[in-house]
Structure formats: structure tokens, C-alpha cells
Write a structure and sequence with these properties.
Elements (H helix, E strand, L loop, with lengths): L3 H9 L1 H22 L9 H6 L1 H15 L8 H13 L7 H16 L5 H31 L8 E10 L4 E8 L13 E8 L4 E8 L9 E6 L11 H9 L5 E4 L16 E6 L3 H14 L5 E7 L8 H10 L3 E7 L4 H6 L4 E2 L8 H4 L5 E6 L1 H13 L7 E5 L8
Helix pairs in contact: 1-7, 2-4, 2-6, 5-7, 6-7
Bound molecules: flavin-adenine dinucleotide (FAD) and protoporphyrin IX containing FE.
Protoporphyrin IX containing FE binds next to helix 4, helix 5, helix 6 and helix 7.
Length: 405
């Protein structure tokens, strides 16, 4: 427990964190990577380049300072972070390194405003957060290692098959190179893979949701190739996976983890809301539900740009035929001429939950939302406006920083 004077000192830094938080975290990362370059291959350098990781850490530090009197409200965020850390192989011995650079950065960025007392207060606060995360991560590692087919760290998997699901999404069927079994997981969870990125000369990890139900002899992920735009470079790891990892190749895989998963113990309605590649964890949930809980009511609500990028269209149609409890609503933002002819969608434009509330909002339902951040923010706003309890809204952000309900 932190004492009162420590808490007061932390609270006094809130205005400066609000104003200079990103400067602080940018300085922190630059400092840490200069002194400990070996950590570059653990951190997502794409998130470093687009600034989202600096932003995520700054928001986390600020949120911690703001909730210092009641840190319990941060527990869901810490669970998300502990899962992400464990998926990336973060260990207790990494904490002193990060702590050293964070405290030195506070001193260097705040200058005269950071006296020894303030640094000591932040050291105590960092130590407290670190202890919570280390304990949670140890429990996650323990669970991952002791289950059937389980492991921790990186395990070599062979790409058994690559299947194009749309013009930009390809599935990878991964089987253990050691011939062992694959572990169970919860529908909705993700794993990390790591590959060599030639332009960085570094191994780079990324998370991918498992896109098939548990219980197969393989783990399946489905990856969108991030092609970039005029002033935005394409995605590094998705490019390597699409272009350089062929069938038969070996790839490093961390065990399934994550705090976003279907509540398998409930029998209440499920509403799955996604856009684009955000469909992947939903497919795992849908396959699982069709197999094990066919009486459970499911609304599958999905949006994509047009038929060319509509992944898993055929699979979802098959599942709908087998699964009496399922109803599907697909939106195309800008249907092509052939889409209009084929009529593989139900509505045009973006998902508008208000317009379909009659069937999309159901008593006692759980809502699983996944897609780009602005999309998720819009869906959460609609769900809340429609009276849905925040406890029933579950979200996965395919980047850093999450989205708060
Ligand atoms: C829990 C979780 C689950 C996920 N599940 C999936 C999934 O099932 N399928 C899937 O395809 N993805 C998924 N992702 C996303 C995935 O982890 C990667 O982030 C994604 O593949 C992009 O990685 P990349 O290396 O190709 O792109 P990166 O190189 O990391 O770049 C990321 C983005 O930043 C942009 N960018 C890079 N540099 C700059 C710059 N200087 N300025 C502006 N923008 C820039 C790139 O264009 C790209 O869009 C998931 C992420 C998480 C956290
Ligand atoms: C008290 C200490 C720490 C806190 C509060 C913390 C907090 C966070 C937060 C908020 C995220 C973003 C999660 C997300 O939105 O996806 C994150 C991600 C991450 N953290 Fe930590 N962290 C701590 C310690 C560490 C340590 C010791 C390491 C090891 C070097 C580490 C490595 C990472 C990595 C690699 C990521 C993923 C970032 C990316 O690749 O984009 N963290 N952490």
C-alpha cells in the first residue's frame, strides 16, 4: 500500500502528465532502446513508428495517477496488459530495466520539477504496479505451461496450409513442428507469432486472434495484409507473413492468451459485432457455439468495404445453415456492381445498431465488439445509448491502448 504523502506526490504530477505525458514516454522509449537495444525485438516497432505505443503508455501512467486512491478500477486494464505481456514473454527480470529508464526519464523530462521525493514516490508506485503485473503474469504462464499441449515462450510451428479468405486476408494453419498436441483455448483469444523483419534486421512479434474453434489439430490465424497508403508504409509483419512465409515454413508461436473471450458458461444471447479483419475472433466464437451450444441465440453483425474483402463469407453461410439460433446481418460500405448482382450483403453503409436495435439488442445478451478503434468507439456509444450495461460489452482492440467501455 502506498502512504498518503506518496499518493499526494503522485497526484500532484497529474497536470504535467496530462500536458507532457507523450513527451515523457517518447523520451523513455528512446532512452531504453539506446541503453538496452536487445529490447527492440520484444516491442512492436510499428507501434513505435506510428506513435500508438508512446500514447498507450502515457495514457496508462496518467490513468494510474488519476486513480491512485482507487486503483481497483484499473484491474480490467491490468488484466489486459498482463495477458499482452505474457504473450510477449515479459518476465520479472525485465521490470527493473523498465523501471530504471522510466524514473530516469521522469527526472530528465521534468527537470527542476522532479525532486528526490517525487522520484521516490514514483519508484514506490512503479514497484506496486510491477508486483501486481508480475504476479498476474506468473499465473498466466503457469496455466499456459501446465495444460495439455501447453508451453511458455516460443514454440516452433509449421505452416501446414495457407488459405486466401479474401483479397487481403489469408489464413495460416499452424501445427507444432515437434509433432505434439495443441492446447485448448477460449474462443476469442489470440496468440503471438514472431518473424524476422528484414528492413529492421530484428525479430518482431505480433498478436493474431485464433480464427477457428478450439479442438482442432491446428491453430489457425487469419492475417490481413496491411498495404499502407501514399504517406503510410505498409505493415511489416503482415507483409512477411503474406509474402515470405510459405506453406511448410517454420514460425515461432507463443501460447494462446487474452482476456477477450466468449463466456462459455452462459446460455444467454450473444451479439457479435465486427468490421473488417475484426471478424477473426468472432469466427472462433461462432464455430464453437455452432458445435456446442446450438440453442444459444446469436446475432452475427459484420461490416466490410465490399465483396472483394468479405472474408469467411462461405463459412459463415455454412454455419448459418447448421445453426438454428444464428442470424446474420452483413453491411457493405461501398458495394461493387457485382456485389449488387450477387446480393451477398444485407445492408449498405456502416453498422447502425440504432436501426437494427429491434433484434440486435436483447435482454441479458453479451456484446463482443472487434474492429478498428473509431468503429469500436461508435458501437460502444450506440450500445450505451441503447441502455446496454458496460459489463456486458467486451472488446478487443487490434493495436495498443485498448478502448474503454
Ligand atoms: C489482440 C490482437 C489481436 C489481433 N488479431 C489480428 C487478426 O486476427 N488479424 C490481423 O490481421 N491482425 C490482428 N491484429 C493486428 C496485428 O497484431 C498487427 O498489428 C497487424 O498485422 C499489423 O502488423 P504489421 O507488422 O503488418 O504492421 P506494422 O508495421 O506494425 O504497422 C502497423 C500499422 O501502422 C502503420 N504505420 C507504420 N508506420 C507508420 C508511420 N510512420 N506513420 C503512420 N502509420 C504507420 C502501418 O501502415 C500499419 O497499418 C491483432 C492485434 C491484437 C493486439
Ligand atoms: C509497471 C510496469 C508496466 C506497466 C504499467 C506497463 C503497461 C503497459 C501498457 C498499458 C501496455 C499497452 C497494452 C495495450 O494496450 O496493448 C503495455 C504493452 C507492452 N509492454 Fe508493458 N508495462 C509495464 C512493464 C513492462 C515491462 C517490464 C516490459 C518488458 C520489457 C514491458 C513490455 C511491454 C511490451 C513489449 C508491450 C507491447 C507493446 C507493443 O508491442 O506495442 N512492459 N505495457
Amino acid at each position: 500500500m502506498l502512504d498518503m504523502p506518496t499518493k499526494e506526490l503522485i497526484k500532484a504530477t497529474i497536470p504535467v502528465l496530462r500536458e507532457h505525458g507523450v513527451t515523457l514516454t517518447r523520451h523513455f522509449y528512446a532512452r531504453m532502446f539506446t541503453h538496452n537495444p536487445e529490447l527492440k525485438s520484444i516491442f512492436n516497432q510499428g507501434n513505435q513508428q506510428n506513435g500508438s505505443q508512446q500514447q498507450a503508455l502515457a495514457m496508462a501512467v496518467l490513468a494510474y495517477a488519476e486513480h491512485i486512491e482507487n486503483p481497483g478500477v484499473l484491474q480490467p486494464v491490468l488484466t489486459m496488459v498482463a495477458n499482452k505481456h505474457a504473450s510477449l514473454g515479459i518476465r520479472a527480470e525485465h521490470y527493473p530495466i523498465v523501471g530504471k529508464h522510466l524514473l530516469a526519464s521522469i527526472r530528465e523530462v521534468l527537470g527542476d520539477a522532479a525532486n528526490d521525493e517525487l522520484i521516490a514516490a514514483w519508484a514506490a508506485a512503479y514497484g506496486q504496479l510491477a508486483d501486481i503485473l508480475i504476479a498476474q503474469e506468473q499465473a498466466i504462464y503457469q496455466q499456459a505451461a501446465t495444460q495439455d499441449g501447453g508451453w511458455t515462450g516460443w514454440r516452433s510451428f509449421r505452416v501446414q496450409q495457407k488459405v486466401a479468405e479474401s483479397e487481403e486476408i489469408t489464413s495460416f494453419y499452424l501445427v507444432p513442428a515437434d509433432g505434439g498436441v495443441v492446447p485448448d483455448y477460449r474462443p476469442g483469444q489470440y496468440l503471438s507469432v514472431r518473424v524476422m523483419v528484414p528492413e529492421l534486421g530484428l525479430m518482431q512479434p505480433r498478436q493474431y486472434s485464433l480464427s477457428a474453434a478450439p479442438g482442432n489439430a491446428y491453430l489457425r490465424i487469419s492475417v490481413k495484409k496491411e498495404t499502407g497508403a501514399t504517406n503510410t508504409p505498409g505493415g511489416m509483419v503482415s507483409k512477411v507473413l503474406h509474402d515470405s512465409i510459405a506453406e511448410g515454413a517454420l514460425i515461432d508461436v507463443a501460447p494462446p492468451m487474452g482476456d477477450y473471450f466468449l463466456h462459455q458458461d452462459r446460455d444467454t444471447p450473444v451479439v457479435l459485432i465486427s468490421a473488417g479483419v475484426g471478424v477473426t475472433p468472432k469466427l472462433s466464437m461462432l464455430e464453437y457455439l455452432a458445435k456446442t451450444q446450438p440453442a444459444r441465440s446469436v446475432q452475427f453483425i459484420h461490416a466490410c468495404r465490399h465483396g472483394g474483402v468479405h472474408a469467411f463469407r462461405q463459412r459463415v453461410r455454412e454455419l448459418q445453415q447448421q445453426y438454428p439460433g444464428m442470424n446474420s446481418t452483413v453491411y457493405y460500405e461501398t458495394p461493387r456492381e457485382q456485389d449488387v448482382r450477387d446480393r451477398d450483403y444485407d445492408r449498405t453503409g456502416r453498422i447502425d445498431l440504432m436501426a437494427i436495435a429491434e433484434y440486435a439488442i436483447q435482454p441479458q445478451a453479451d456484446y463482443y465488439v472487434c474492429g478498428p478503434k473509431p468503429f469500436m468507439q461508435a458501437q460502444i456509444a450506440s450500445l450505451k445509448a441503447l441502455g446496454v450495461d458496460a459489463q456486458r460489452i467486451h472488446m478487443e482492440a487490434f493495436g495498443s491502448g485498448g478502448v474503454a467501455a
